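Example 3.
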Amino acid sequence: MKTLKILTALAVVVILSAFVVKSMGPKGIGSNGYGVGDMADDIHLKNIDGQFVSFSDYTSAKGFIVIFTCNTCPFSVANEDRIIALDTKYKNLGYPVIAINPNNPDVKPGDSFEAMKVRAKEKGFTFPYLFDEGQQVYPKYGATKTPHVYLLQKTDKGNEVKYIGAIDDNSRSANAVKVRYLENAVDALLSGKSVEVTETKAIGCSIKA
Amino acid sequence: MLIEPIEQKPYYTFVMMKYYILVGVLILMGCKGGKEEVITSTKMSSQVSFETVDYEGLEEYLETSNATVQVVNFWATWCQPCVKELPYFEKVNTLYADQDVDVILVSLDFPDHIERLSRFIEKHNIQSEVVFLDDGDANNWIPKVDVSWSGAIPATIIYTKEKRSFYERSFTYDELEKELKLFL
């Protein structure tokens, strides 16, 4: 009888923990990511060319412009040309763009690995466009939407998060942009200054996990 | 934490009962999540109209309401999870109208594709009031809507004069109704 009760208690604990894990799923996970000043773990994600990419591959980089983006979100699409321009401008200065598609293609077929290859070719992406297989990386960052930017600076202690948020102050129309938050942040790091505006917000599509 | 069952039998039994009840509730809640409902309205609207506002214009919808309970949903025609949950907001607007619940649908469609919004409203015969928010400087107004909002849509506010909740998430009809009932 005693054994039965212990077994029942164990079963209940197992069932409960299953629910706890479920309740911590995609809906609630977004707010628990990196903040400015945190060290971002290295990544190991598959690029559209089939090769795996890690921060540690970039020995001469000073940092990284990590952008969670995708094929299907209109705000991501509206920013594609701006992302290419950012990579073109800052890659040579030591801050390459690393784009990561966080969406689960089972939920959003237009964001499959194959579709990523097609889009990257169409637009002539100059940067790695990585697939967050199993949706493992975006929750660590705390990304909630596309596009969502994390600017990292290489330090002795690791890749420090220096800026989180929007590319600029008008994500839907490049012509209406007045303040380029991300560029201002990268420029500050390049000139050895501290970033003035470290966090901004923009409308985006919720990440489809 | 595992409870030592030998010495504390009455307490243990009590705790076990609580767990069983909790598990039952959780299972019920879990089951509700997958339910899908689509409503079709039989009413015909003869005109497609919506107000275009900047954030200043939107504030009155977010701060003061003549209705007892105001539900404000941020969406766009291109946002798949938003479109999926829109019928639930429409249903709430219809079913709870007699309890003075009012639904406002704040569209974040792109200004240069605004005809998509008109077509959508017409095609789906949207009955709730639609407001088109044409204000590009999102970093300025997102935190004003709610400090916790990252900017992802769908997002929803439910408020009364006394109480206010913000949700950066999708709803099923049952989930939405459950939240709404907390305000009634």
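The beta strands of chain B are 51-53, 69-75, 101-107, 129-133, 152-153, 155-159, 164-167. The CA atoms of residues 1 and 15 of chain B lie 12 Å apart.
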